[in-house]
Amino acid sequence: MNRLAIVIPCYNEEEVINETANRLKILLKRLIATKKILDTSYILFVNDGSKDTTWDIISDLHKSDKIFNGINLAKNVGHQNALIAGLNFVSDNCDIAISIDADLQDDINAIEDMIDAYAQGYDIVYGVRSSRKKDSFFKKHTALLFYKIMKLLGVNTIYNHADYRLMSKRAIKQFMLYGEKNMFIRGVVPLIGYKTTKVYYEREARFAGESKYPLRKMINFAVDGITSFSVKPIRFIFIIGVICLLFSFASIIYTLISYCQGNTVPGWTSVMISLWFLGSITILSLGIIGEYIGKIYSEVKRRPSYNIDTILFD
């Protein structure tokens, strides 16, 4: 048997955290009773600088039952960094760890299947959605577009997988060796290279509260994922530059021929289109290059991804 740690990043989850705790406690007790895991297994909530009473609830849960533990981060650092903080903490206090969101959308019954897969020799078990039937039209198709773009750019990600996964202790230790500041966990974990498999489940609607990933954060997350793992956008800029250069040569030739034929009439429309087109390409190119320069700037400073304020652990 193995000691299991369930890592749950939390940000303003006061409406769901008690229900999440109750359901997971029941599950852990059942897994302990059936000797799937050790009775020292536990749940770790990572409070990501919540502005509501999330940390107070975590503290009360810890007082009521030592199966619940918590880390309170000094400020909000984002879901990915909060998850890293939790995994880093449990790496010395478990044999296997499962990360899951606090909103109860991921089917917790898949946890037992993950543990069974680990017993069969898999170091990493991905929780994968079996379908997106319950997503809105917009979310379904933007997610599909994101995965297609990542695949086009050569990034190895698991389709329909978020951050619901099991990792063995050695997989977590290896994961922690990836020290980049702008961590895209879904892209890094497949790089570890240990034996992996998938467990499929049906994703449910959110139990309560609002999504912590509005459109703005989803776009930022996608940009971080792309620019953290692929230099192909820079290569696309070069290709666009070559195409624009060819158009420029063609335009010069056309202009010279028109001049020789006496057909050169100043055209406001053509001038403005050219200026706007080339200006847009320039700005777009600088923006993409700026993303990479910003990443380099963040990495070379080597600042910590998170600071822990309080630890509740027994």
Keywords:
314 residues; Spore Coat Polysaccharide Biosynthesis Protein SpsA, Chain A; 2 domains
Give the helices and strands, then pairings:
Elements: E1 4-10, H1 17-33, E2 42-47, H2 54-64, E3 68-73, H3 79-90, E4 96-99, H4 110-119, E5 124-129, H5 137-152, E6 161-168, H6 169-175, H7 185-192, E7 196-201, H8 215-229, H9 232-260, H10 268-301, E8 308-312
Helix pairs in contact: 9-10
What is the SS-derived class?
alpha/beta
- Amino- and carboxy-terminal Cα gap: 20 Å
The dominant shape is elongated
In this structure, how is the largest beta sheet organized? 8 strands, mixed
Number of self-contained structural domains: 2
Q: Fraction of residues in helices?
A: 40-55%
**Strands in their spatial order, largest beta sheet:** 7-5-6-4-1-2-3-8
Rounded mean pLDDT is 79
Q: Which quaternary structure do these chains form?
A: single chain
Written account of the structure:
The protein has 314 residues and is α/β, with parallel strands linked by helices. It folds into 2 domains: 4-212 and 304-312, Alpha-Beta Complex (Spore Coat Polysaccharide Biosynthesis Protein SpsA, Chain A); 232-301. It is built from 10 helices and 8 strands. Helix 9 runs antiparallel to helix 10 (268-301). The longest helix has 34 residues, at 268-301. The two termini are 20 Å apart. The model has no long low-confidence stretch (mean pLDDT 79).
Explain briefly what this protein structure is.
With 314 residues, this protein is α/β, with parallel strands linked by helices. The protein has ten helices and eight strands.
